[in-house]
What does this fold into?
Amino acid sequence: QVQLVESGGGLVQAGGSLRLSCTASGIIFSNNNMGWYRQAPGKQRELVARISSGGSTNYADSVKGRFTISRDNAKNTVYLQMNSLKPEDTAVYYCRAQSTYLYWGQGTQVTVSS
It folds into this structure.
């Protein structure tokens, strides 16, 4: 059974930082491209950042220079370090694993107060 379990969300003031973690089980983690997506109320889910199985990264323009995605294959975990948070970063953040199949985590709420 595949599971992606996110953690690290919460409430933070604008300008603050959070680090999200997503730990995977039931997949060969190192073979998967991993990504973080977010969905704000009334909006479509959007890509935040992704990291390939080989370690290449790309980011949404709105988070470039503020967010960093990384992975630890030994721990089956992908991270999203979020700095200089803004109220518009408020959303549910989802982890995604993609190889032959696509899997999603259950999401973790991030709320940034002004």
